[in-house]
């Protein structure tokens, strides 16, 4: 899958799991702000497995620094679609995100903040913005925009960072599913690659599912960037967008009710 497709699928999975709208699964319901912020964060998390590729969205999001990190990640994991494209890597990324929450710092105005989680949030928002082209082009503008979002979350909804490891896990796993549905497939048993016997490599159906390099694929989307992938991405975009709009509406209603309640209380106090 292309970077934008991964990001959209990650956001769609998150809102499906956390929204309580009728068209959502709602298995892990969150307040509206969690649905909205999480959609953006999970979109960024869905790009993490491709940190092993020198020209992936993550590598292009921060100039020489992210390119260098992507190169190191690719070398450490064995190359593109190797170690980072496994369920083990997904669980590891979620665990590391949870551990990052223990790193704190005291900063002006905000007080003590979960610095590790804030940095994870910052990076994932920047990756999502890059993939979805949500802001102005340019590395500086990209990271400034992500910084604004991160500071806003720390200032007004720091409790929403509690689900950060789950968002990373969901985004990571959705990425793997997306790649599994393309002709490239995945090394499901990495680092062990069981290659098919030669006599089976030309079997009409099996040769598309059990690849000569030992990868496994369910290539219903065809090649990366295919028309089928683009069609699926369009549908998921509409779905995720609709649920984000519903969450935004509920958030505004909640703020309105809170303001009205405060005004009413003030009026009663004044009468007293």
Q: Can you put this structure into words, describing what you see?
A:
The chain contains nine helices and two strands, in the order H-H-H-H-E-E-H-H-H-H-H. The chain has one domain (3-178, 225-261). It has 272 residues and is mainly α. Helix 2 runs antiparallel to helix 9 (227-271).
**CA distance, first residue to last residue:** 64 Å
Radius of gyration: 21 Å
What class do helices, strands and sheet pairing give? mainly alpha
Helix content: 55-70%
Quaternary assembly: single chain
The biggest beta sheet is recorded as:
2 strands, antiparallel
Q: Tell me the domain tally.
A: 1
Compressed to H and E, one letter per element, the order equals HHHHEEHHHHH
Mean pLDDT: 92
Q: Trace the largest sheet across and list its strands.
A: 1-2
Helical run tally? 9
Strand percentage lies at: under 5%
Quick one: overall form? globular
Low-confidence runs: none
Tally of DSSP β-strands:
2
Descriptors for this entry?
hydrolase; mainly alpha; single chain; transmembrane; two-stranded antiparallel ribbon; 272 residues; 59% helix; YdjM-like; hydrolase activity
How is this structure best summarized?
Keywords: Hydrolase, Membrane, Transmembrane, Transmembrane helix. InterPro entries: YdjM-like. This protein is an all-alpha fold and 272 residues long.
Detail the topology: elements first, then pairings.
Blueprint: H1 3-18, H2 32-45, H3 63-77, H4 87-100, E1 105-107, E2 111-113, H5 115-132, H6 139-156, H7 164-180, H8 206-209, H9 227-271
Antiparallel strand pairs: 1-2
GO molecular function, one term: hydrolase activity
Keywords: Hydrolase, Membrane, Transmembrane, Transmembrane helix
Transmembrane segments: 105-127, 139-157, 169-193
């Amino acid at each position: 899958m292309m970077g934008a497709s991964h990001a959209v699928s990650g956001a769609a999975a998150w809102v499906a799991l956390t929204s309580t709208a009728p068209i959502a699964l709602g298995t892990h319901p969150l307040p509206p702000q969690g649905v909205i912020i999480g959609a953006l964060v999970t979109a960024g998390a869905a790009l993490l497995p491709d940190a092993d590729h020198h020209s992936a969205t993550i590598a292009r999001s921060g100039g020489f620094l992210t390119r260098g990190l992507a190169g190191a990640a690719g070398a450490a994991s064995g190359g593109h679609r190797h170690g980072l494209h496994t369920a083990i890597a997904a669980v590891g990324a979620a665990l590391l995100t949870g551990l990052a929450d223990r790193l704190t710092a005291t900063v002006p105005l905000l007080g003590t903040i979960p610095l590790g989680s804030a940095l994870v949030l910052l990076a994932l928002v920047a990756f999502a913005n890059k993939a979805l082209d949500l802001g102005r082009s340019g590395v500086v503008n990209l990271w400034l925009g992500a910084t604004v979002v991160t500071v806003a979350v720390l200032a007004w909804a720091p409790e929403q960072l509690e689900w950060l490891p789950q968002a990373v896990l969901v985004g990571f796993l959705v990425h793997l599913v997306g790649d599994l549905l393309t002709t490239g497939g995945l090394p499901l048993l990495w680092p062990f690659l069981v290659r098919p016997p030669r006599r089976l490599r030309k079997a009409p159906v099996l040769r598309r599912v059990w690849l000569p390099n030992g990868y496994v694929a369910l290539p219903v989307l065809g090649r990366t960037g295919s028309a089928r992938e683009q069609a699926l991405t369009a549908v998921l975009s509409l779905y995720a967008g609709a649920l984000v709009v519903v969450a935004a509406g509920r958030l505004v209603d909640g703020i309105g009710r809170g303001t009205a309640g405060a005004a009413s209380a003030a009026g009663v106090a004044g009468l007293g």
